[in-house]
Amino acid sequence: MSGFEEARERIASYPLASIEDVWVEYDRSSDTLHILFGKEEAEESILVDDNIIINISGGRIVGITIAELRRRYIES
To answer: Which of 31, 64, 73, 75 has the most CB atoms around it within 10 Å of its CB?
Structure first.
C-alpha cells in the first residue's frame, strides 16, 4: 500500500475544514509541500506515513504536509 493510500484510510473519518479556502505552498529549500484548508492552527498532528503529516483542529483536517516531496514522489 502506498503512503497516499495509507494516509487516506487513516484520516477518512476527518472532514476537511474548508474546501473553499484552500491554498498550497511549496518550500523548495526544505522540499516540503503544505496544503492548507482554512486558517485554523492545528491542535493535533498525525504522522500517517513517513514524512506525511495530517494537521487536525476541531475534528477537521486543516492541513497536510508532505516532506521530501520531490525525492519521494517526483524523482522516483
So the answer is: 64
d(CA 26, CA 9): 24
DSSP tag of 17: S
Residue 20: pLDDT above 90?
Answer: no
Sheet containing strand 60-67, edge to edge, reads 22-27, 32-37, 60-67, 52-57, 44-49
> Is it the case that residue 44 has pLDDT exceeding 60?
yes
In the predicted model, what is the mean pLDDT of residues 36-52?
88
